[in-house]
């Protein structure tokens, strides 16, 4: 068994962009297993928080620490963006791409990509250009590409934001499967129902600050802060 | 009008009879310009990609210089190459003046900035699309450039073609450094200039038509080649 890159610790992490504080100060430790759902209103800093942990943002202040050497840290985590980034390649080559980077032959990589497409339930012509896919299919492509390296940690930024119920259910099924195989998942959503279905833990962000953390049951039994209460109640109102 | 018609018929006759001089001149044109385009592409494409992908201190200056070099008057390039290659020049010992190699050098200098600039533009757009993904997947710098070059290959081919088009029709610089020597450095454009000077418009026009046909043929060939690739919708 390879040594894990978790826990991840953030100490007083702060992101400032154009003189404005967009995140922090946040202190948090990511460890253990399961699915952590990041909630919060629009502009609360969910995207910034996820990107920051994944190493896509330069910290303005504070410290962040994964375990192990830089290459392993980078290779053992994956990110699914809110708007899938498609390469100008076929569906299969898009999914296979991370393995090509890892030095596998195109044949092996594509074979693995076929399996991964199957796992996420991507039933399209795999040799078609990726940009012909629908929104839900694109998100599945992104998910397959993210899972193909069997990451230890998977970040997803509102992966179901623009999807219909059917696609959302399928993605949730895949995520539950990945969790059961041991992938640590951190995902943002503003879909309270999705949070209830998937979460083991909840993080609640407001104005760039982490104002609640806790297990799903505790969180939904009664959020401590008025912001979180308003958020779930607001979303539950018809 | 008569001249044009005569030029066309003469061009047809020269082509149909596989005129030896015409074939030689045409082949030399192709050889010089294809070589120059390949060399300029080998320099210009990665250079354009490099500038698009890397933030370094002199980046803006490099881009400004590249754009300025695009407007470089070919005659001046010819003059400078001439001075450098002339017997008393710094590279005079190589004895390259009035050879096809000198013409290739001049053309490379003229079209490399064009190829670099166009590819820079194209790769910058692609990089903006791919940036977060490639960073997220931890692609090395080399892998990033390779990916951008590969996925941007159509735009890059256009850049090379623009360079080819500019080079095959260029006359000022290669006239100076090549000397338009019969059976040595005469190419289509310099032959046209010569025949026009002599007043032989028919032959000049014939050569002109061959030149145009050549440029179109090369563009078409590459278009067909790229169009038949898989995933051609990109
Ligand atoms: N590069 C940036 N420049 C300026 N402001 C930014 C930048 N990135 C994010 N922000 C701001 O930071 C805040 C948090 O954004 P974001 O992390 O996208 O929130 P969320 O994903 O929760 O909606 C927003 O107010 C947003 O406008
Ligand atoms: Mg967001």
In short:
The complex is a heterodimer of chains A (238) and B (234). Chain A is of the alpha/beta class and 238 residues long. Helices cover 39% and strands 24% of the residues of chain A.
Give your account of this protein's structure:
The complex is a heterodimer of chains A (238) and B (234). With 238 residues, chain A is an alpha/beta fold. Chain A has a domain at 8-85 and 151-233: P-loop containing nucleotide triphosphate hydrolases (Rossmann fold, 3-Layer(aba) Sandwich), CATH 3.40.50.300. Helix content of chain A is 39%, strand content 24%. Chain A contains nine helices and nine strands. Chain A has helices spanning 46-54, 70-75, 91-101, 106-119, 135-147, 165-180, 192-198, 216-221, 226-236, and strands spanning 8-17, 20-30, 35-39, 61-65, 77-80, 153-157, 184-188, 201-206, 209-215. In chain A, strands 5-6-7-3-8-9 form a six-stranded mixed beta sheet, with helices on both faces. In chain A, strands 2-1-4 form a three-stranded antiparallel beta sheet. In chain A, helix 3 crosses helix 4 (106-119), helix 4 (106-119) crosses helix 5 (135-147) and helix 5 runs parallel beside helix 6. Chain A is globular and about 50 Å long. The termini of chain A are far apart. By secondary structure, chain B is mainly α. Chain B has a single domain (2-226), classed as MetI-like (MetI-like fold). Chain B contains ten helices and no strands. Chain B has helices spanning 2-16, 20-53, 59-70, 74-85, 100-136, 141-151, 153-168, 172-178, 188-198, 201-227. In chain B, 39% of the residues are buried. The mean pLDDT of chain B is 89. The chains are: A alpha/beta (238), B mainly alpha (234). Magnesium ion binds next to helix 1 of chain A. Chain A: It comes from Defluviimonas salinarum. Chain A: This is ATP-binding cassette domain-containing protein. Chain A: One of its GO terms (molecular function) is ATP binding.
